[in-house]
């Protein structure tokens, strides 16, 4: 994929969003931002919308085992009561989920009607295979979309991320960004402010690092490919990108080498022992146990670190937007969404599920459980704001505002590129030849793109 194609895709996404908003604003029906109506109890004025239109239909949802899935499963009965549509739900750990979903989609039998999808991971691949049903027509059709659905309520950036090659292929159910999650009590003891720059982050990690007492300054992912999604924000902060202006892989550029080096030094000097074996699960557990001063990872883990049944530091946690780098203030944003496979035989019934699951009521319920969402009204609803963590709210909103990139390269074979980049991160953590490893990864990246795009 050339850089021109990447820019064209982004421009098409914005044009497509504006077109959708033009139709969706007419569907909003004047519903006030912050409204808390549940689709399980349609409000007055919705009598013309037929929620029972597809009563008796059966649909199948295949999902990743994710906080969103855990939240929605207990209330699936509300959807069935509202619509008369029976839903079969199946969720699996992410690796198994992706494998099963890819197998079923490639068979083209229509066995899946609704699927979780992360376009930053598989969007270009699935679109190239023709596996997505574009959702534009559903959003714009007042006979299929409830008048209070209010598509314009979604923040622009997550919708852009659910748009592939100018087509809306999913509706976001959550979002996450790389965030600074830190021990507020320890920062106060040391007189440290939340880090605003990369230099601040390193200084804070150094000040907190006390390995003799099992307190490590910072937790960064070090486990190869699993680390790339968080390393990406450092890449952007140094002014780098996956692809250069010429559209060619740029992992051996100076900004990329600087990002690898900074990340490796930070993890090696102020991280836990054996950090190259740690992914998010190990680092979140260390933070919960009070062994990390700073956790640099996805904002979705607020749920874990604030869980009093699992975290010894719940109530002592602070949050800050990802800091500004030497060349840019940017952060990787990631979103899971719900999509309809092109092979589904129950597309309209599936769309009914999508709009129920991504309604204002469901977004608010998710946010109240600590899962960041894409609807602006949820963040403004008094039912949330009266007891919310304002520091976290500000950090997440800032992340949405400054984000210009996702956590993955804009190519078809995302996982293959991640696998090529992972060893560079490990080499940097171990103090190896970063420039040599980066050059090797860049050549592998070129070969991957040449073969699959």
TrEMBL record:
GO cellular component annotations of the record? periplasmic space
Subcellular location field = Periplasm
* CDD domains membership: PBP2_TMBP_like
Which family is this protein grouped under?
Answer: Belongs to the bacterial solute-binding protein 1 family.
- The protein depicted here goes by the name Various polyols ABC transporter, periplasmic substrate-binding protein
Biological source species:
uncultured Thermomicrobiales bacterium
């Amino acid at each position: 994929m050339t850089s021109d194609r990447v820019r064209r895709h982004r421009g098409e996404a914005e044009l497509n969003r504006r077109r959708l908003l033009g139709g969706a604003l007419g569907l909003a029906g004047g519903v006030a931002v912050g409204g808390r109506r549940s689709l399980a109890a349609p409000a007055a004025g919705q009598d013309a919308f037929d929620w029972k239109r597809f009563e008796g239909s059966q649909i199948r949802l295949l999902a990743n085992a994710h906080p969103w899935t855990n939240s929605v499963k207990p209330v699936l009965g509300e959807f069935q009561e509202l619509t008369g549509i029976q839903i079969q739900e199946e969720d699996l750990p992410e690796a198994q989920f992706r494998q099963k979903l890819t197998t079923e989609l490639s068979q083209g039998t229509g066995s899946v009607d609704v699927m979780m999808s992360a376009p930053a991971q598989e969007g270009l691949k699935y679109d190239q295979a023709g596996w997505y049903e574009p959702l534009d027509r559903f959003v714009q059709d007042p006979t299929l979309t409830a008048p209070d659905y209010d598509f314009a309520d979604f923040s622009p950036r997550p919708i852009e991320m659910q748009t592939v090659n100018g087509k809306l292929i999913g509706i976001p159910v959550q979002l996450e960004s790389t965030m600074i999650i830190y021990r507020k009590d320890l920062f106060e003891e040391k007189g440290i402010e939340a880090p605003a720059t990369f230099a601040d982050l390193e200084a804070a990690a150094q000040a907190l690092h006390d390995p003799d007492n099992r307190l490590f300054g910072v937790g960064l992912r070090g486990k190869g490919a699993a680390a790339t999604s968080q390393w990406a924000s450092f890449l952007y902060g140094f002014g780098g990108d996956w692809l250069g202006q010429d559209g060619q892989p740029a992992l051996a550029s100076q900004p990329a080498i600087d990002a690898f080096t900074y990340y490796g030094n930070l993890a090696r000097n102020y991280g836990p022992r054996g950090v190259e074996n740690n992914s998010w699960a190990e680092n979140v557990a260390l933070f919960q146990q009070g062994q990390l001063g700073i956790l640099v990872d996805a904002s979705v883990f607020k749920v874990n670190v604030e869980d009093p049944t699992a975290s010894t530091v719940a109530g002592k946690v602070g949050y800050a937007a990802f800091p500004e780098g030497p060349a840019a203030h940017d952060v990787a944003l990631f979103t899971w969404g719900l999509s309809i496979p092109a092979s589904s035989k129950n597309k309209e019934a599936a769309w009914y599920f999508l709009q129920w699951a991504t309604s204002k009521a469901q977004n608010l319920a998710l946010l109240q459980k600590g899962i960041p969402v894409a609807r602006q009204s949820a963040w403004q609803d008094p039912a949330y704001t009266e007891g919310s963590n304002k520091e976290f709210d500000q950090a997440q909103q800032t992340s949405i505002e400054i984000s210009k990139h996702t956590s993955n390269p804009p190519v078809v074979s995302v996982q293959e590129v991640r696998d090529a980049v992972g060893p560079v991160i490990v080499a940097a953590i171990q103090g190896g030849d970063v420039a040599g490893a980066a050059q090797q990864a860049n050549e592998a990246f070129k070969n991957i793109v040449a073969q699959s795009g």
